[in-house]
Amino acid sequence: MKFLAITLIAHGPDPLTGETRSTTERFRDVVDTAVLAEELGFDGFGVGERHERPFISSSPPVVLSHIAARTSRIRLFTAVTTLSLLDPVRAYEDYATLDHLSGGRLELIIGKGNGSAQARLFHVTSEDQWDRNREAYELFRRLWREDRVTWEGRFRPSLTDAETWPRPLQRPIRVWHGSATSKESVELAAHYGDPLFSANVTNPIEPYAELVDHYRERWAHHGHDPADALVGAGSAGFYAARTSQEAIATYRPIYDARVALFRRSGVEPVFHSLEDAIERGSILVGSPQQIIDKVLRYHERLGHEVMHISADADGLTRAQHRAALELFQSAVAPVLRKEIPSRPFPAVPVVPQSAGATRQEGAVTRRSTVTHQNTAVTNQSAGTRQSTVTSTGAPA
């Protein structure tokens, strides 16, 4: 199994202290957590996309570009790219650029997105959101694969022999389809032979498992090899401690604050207590063995090879958050990697080097060598003079 840490970059008061970090600090927290995720051995880091409060994740390619500059190995995910709201040409340009800046470490999870405020912001309706999502993906997919595109649709101006730049590094890029409650994303993924990422957050497992079963059925219907179907799944929260008692005691006030917030907002939570959420939901709170057992139970029903946990502290102190992530990677992930085999992520492409770049690299290397040699000679001369002073008591 492979593991992603994912954030939607919620920005609001700490559920326990009530303190709100500045927007700048919140973005820095996200980038620092991504760097930590790479250090600890997570396979991927994902940034969601929302265009309404309390989220500040309206520009995932910008955030992921900064993370790409601070990391070198971890794969970068969108979670999700809301194609139903975006111009697919502009989205292509952003992500093709990020593909190069990340050295080909980018993967996309796409979806229609959630939230009525952001739908109004982009003049998207419940009647056309799925049509927009499908049309945008079909065009985005062609733009990534074809150097020139002629196309006509309903929701953006037509294209005639259009070129888009830059051309991507990965040919093609892997695109997952995020699925929460609707069969539309499932059908789109199965039709194109793309992997499915189940949200697996709000409800018990049954509705998500039904959609995964439907995906596998539609996958075969469209003529794909059933063995090639690939599924990922999320989780509703995370805190690991050495004992279940410690984990529950630490996380209970955070969960209770979340439930209270839902109720103040007029939303009745599906799980009314932390124990109920642990028993019936996907939240991962407990000892390492409890978390391992729960993921294995979910895998029996979903057959997923990739899972995500929350990258956010969400009320934990910095020390508690780091300790939980470290414990996950040291005591949980190794067992699940062994118990649940997973296919490798796409290989990072080899970046072609032009002759000019090779000559420039050689010149830099030669300059570095000369500088090093000159420094060594200078240091040696200084050392000789110092030795003479030391042995005679006066300069030679």
From TrEMBL:
Transmembrane segments: none
Start and end residues of each stretch annotated as Disordered: 352-396
Domain of life: Bacteria
Span of the signal peptide: none
Polar residues bias (residue ranges): 366-396
Gene3D superfamilies the UniProt entry points to: Luciferase-like domain
Keyword Oxidoreductase set for record: yes
Keywords: Monooxygenase, Oxidoreductase
Keyword Acetylation: no
SUPFAM superfamilies given in the database record: Bacterial luciferase-like (SSF51679)
UniProt-recorded Gene Ontology molecular function terms: monooxygenase activity; oxidoreductase activity, acting on paired donors, with incorporation or reduction of molecular oxygen
GO CC field: cytosol
Domain Luciferase-like: 1-304
Classification via InterPro entries: Bact_Lucif_Oxidored (IPR050766), Luciferase-like_dom (IPR011251), Luciferase-like_sf (IPR036661)
PANTHER family xref list: BLR5498 PROTEIN, LUCIFERASE-LIKE MONOOXYGENASE
Protein name, entry field: Luciferase-like monooxygenase
